[in-house]
Amino acid sequence: MDIKVIQALFLFVCFILSSFLIISTTRSRRRSHRTAATPPGPPRLPIIGNIHLVGKNPHRSFYDLSKTYGPVMSLKLGCLNSVVITSPEAAREVLRTHDQILSGRSSDNSIRSINHQELSVVWLPSSSPRWRLLRKLLATKVISPQRIEATKALRVNKVKELVSFMSESSEREEAVDISRASFITTLNIISNLLFSVDLGSYDSKMSNGFQDTVIGLMEAVGNPDAANYFPLLRFLDLQDNRKKTKEGCERLFRVFRGFIDAKIAEKSTRDNPKDVTNSDVVDALLDLITKGDEAELNTNVIEHFLLDLFTAGTDTSSSTLEWAMAELLSNPKTMAKAQAEIEHVIGQNGVVQESDISALPYLQAVVKETFRLHPAAPLLVPRKAESDAEVLGFMVTKDTQVLVNVWAIGRDPNVWENPNRFEPERFLGKEIDVKGRDYELTPFGAGRRICPGLTLALKTVSLMLASLLYSFDWKLPIGVGSKDLDMDETFGLTLHKTNPLHAIPVKKRIIN
């Protein structure tokens, strides 16, 4: 073989080997860089990863771990890569800077049991045309400023019914289950908004059934589930979360179908469309189907849409009111201060109106402080990275679950003075709010995934709380002191008091 050919072959082989070496080194460096940029986290055990470190209250477990591993922490939960966020700065990166990339959803085992991930405004990806349709329907048919204003009298009347129930209990000197009573109120507000009927009664066990169903659903969806961490176990349903979700949803769907069928039958016998001022949400949605204005809308989609509204609108508001009352009963001076403000604004023989709330800054501070210490969804709804994103210098890789621990942020001593104390005064004279712009206080989330019903929730909780404080003094049952009141939590998608709050209303004035 010619010497020049041999030299050429030798140079070619050297070039190939050099290129391979350069590419390998570059890839190795990239892997090293990515490894170095991975958020810190605790050591992992084979197969289970860090599952053994997560207790029955994951928000507390994650908070304790973050004290060691920082505000952007990596965990391996079985097969699921997770990143937990526990600082306002990191929350801003997730909820604002990388909102689009980190707004995906990992639908869990229980949600898939009813195919809800394909029909739900909560669980659909934000890039989905159906998600955009449902958000539009929320904005125009459910929580538009016009509908919120039009239903103002409804909310006031339902809260008056709550006060009347409390008044009857007061005459009997009977302790009231605050969670149940406030749930019935919010249930009737939501059911009238959706169907124009009361679904709850303060004297009926049926209302307890609704509450048990909704709370059971929230717990089944929010509870840690082995199938979410080990997909091969899905068919076993080891913790019965699929079964509980399916049974609970079917009970609610039967109720929804009854109203939908009745309204369809009514529409078929009516010559003229119902007056807009008298129509409810289901009327408005069925009109869209009849007119063919929304091709993707059908009764099945409406049922799942109603499920989102029903569960999100009832349980979270009643739970927040219960936490607020529990904190006030534990802090009598704070309660007295809130009551004095309300009486100064309303007078001695009035009725609290929604328009009065803006003149009650201390009451608003009480509500904010309740959201800080007891956010309804302590980890928000889990997000998923649609692609790689960098959060405070750490790489969050595609398909990673992202949990924003708003419970931990609300108790961060670097953000809040005396973080574990209930002190509404911390909000007086400050612009900080819960509407998704202040990342140290985001109980409703922020960005494109912010809870769309936050305005309605704030109005409902504030009106109920102000009315109960205005109309009654409150005392705990005999043998229970303000310092003895337990604040134990039960974790689910919504955070509940483990032991329902019972308190005795003491009537302060004549109630019409």
From TrEMBL:
<keyword id="KW-0812">Transmembrane</keyword>
<keyword id="KW-1133">Transmembrane helix</keyword>
<dbReference type="GO" id="GO:0020037">
    <property type="term" value="F:heme binding"/>
</dbReference>
<dbReference type="Pfam" id="PF00067">
    <property type="entry name" value="p450"/>
</dbReference>
<dbReference type="GO" id="GO:0005506">
    <property type="term" value="F:iron ion binding"/>
</dbReference>
<dbReference type="GO" id="GO:0004497">
    <property type="term" value="F:monooxygenase activity"/>
</dbReference>
<keyword id="KW-0349">Heme</keyword>
<keyword id="KW-0408">Iron</keyword>
<protein>
    <recommendedName>
        <fullName>Cytochrome P450</fullName>
    </recommendedName>
</protein>
<feature type="transmembrane region" description="Helical">
    <location>
        <begin position="6"/>
        <end position="24"/>
    </location>
</feature>
<dbReference type="InterPro" id="IPR002401">
    <property type="entry name" value="Cyt_P450_E_grp-I"/>
</dbReference>
<dbReference type="InterPro" id="IPR001128">
    <property type="entry name" value="Cyt_P450"/>
</dbReference>
<keyword id="KW-0560">Oxidoreductase</keyword>
<feature type="binding site" description="axial binding residue">
    <location>
        <position position="451"/>
    </location>
    <ligand>
        <name>heme</name>
    </ligand>
</feature>
<keyword id="KW-0472">Membrane</keyword>
<dbReference type="InterPro" id="IPR036396">
    <property type="entry name" value="Cyt_P450_sf"/>
</dbReference>
<keyword id="KW-0479">Metal-binding</keyword>
<comment type="similarity">
    <text>Belongs to the cytochrome P450 family.</text>
</comment>
<dbReference type="InterPro" id="IPR017972">
    <property type="entry name" value="Cyt_P450_CS"/>
</dbReference>
<dbReference type="GO" id="GO:0016705">
    <property type="term" value="F:oxidoreductase activity, acting on paired donors, with incorporation or reduction of molecular oxygen"/>
</dbReference>
<keyword id="KW-0503">Monooxygenase</keyword>
